[in-house]
Design a protein that fits this description.
Largest sheet: 3 strands, antiparallel
Shape: elongated
Strand order of the largest sheet: 2-1-3
Number of helices: 4
Number of strands: 5
Order of helices and strands: EEHEEEHHH
Strand content: 15-25%
Distance between the termini: 41 Å
Length: 146
């Protein structure tokens, strides 16, 4: 049994111990461990939590199923992860660019590649717009980052 709630737009999970449950009961633990200004407080079963924690920051309490995953937040999180990959590639291109300063053709090729990477977030958002399946979102990696 777990207690979930939101505070400051973040989902929090309280995992009571058996001793705590025996001593205080679930309402006592809520009173003790859940802040007074918390919202969307729900008691859920252990198996109501998603097994995959990739989108953990997109979890939102939902009285019907325990937890729902906000797809808009999940897409934003995945975009941030892809931006991190992109930034590492850009960093490597910057290093390579410094090594070939005398080669105008190589410099132009690197600049074109860097511009493609800079424009990538807009392409990613466009391609993820119609994605509804969280596994599809999680596994989406544009060819430029492979």
């Amino acid at each position: 049994m777990k207690i979930i709630y939101t505070k400051n737009n973040q989902t929090h999970i309280v995992m009571p111990t058996l001793d705590g449950l025996k001593a205080l009961g679930i309402l006592g633990i809520i009173k003790k461990d859940v802040p007074e200004d918390a919202k969307d407080i729900a008691v859920i079963s252990d198996d109501a939590l998603p097994k995959d924690r990739y989108f953990r920051s997109a979890w939102k309490p939902c009285n019907k199923n325990g937890i729902k995953i906000c797809k808009k937040t999940a897409k934003g999180m995945h975009l941030d992860n892809l931006r991190s990959k992109r930034d590492k590639i850009l960093e490597e291109l910057d290093k390579h660019q410094l090594r070939v300063l005398a080669d105008k053709e190589a410099l132009e090729s690197i600049e074109v590649g860097k511009q493609v990477l800079r424009d990538l977030p807009i392409k990613i958002l466009s391609e993820m717009e119609d994605m509804d399946d969280l596994e599809v979102i999680k596994n989406y990696i544009p060819k430029e980052l492979k």
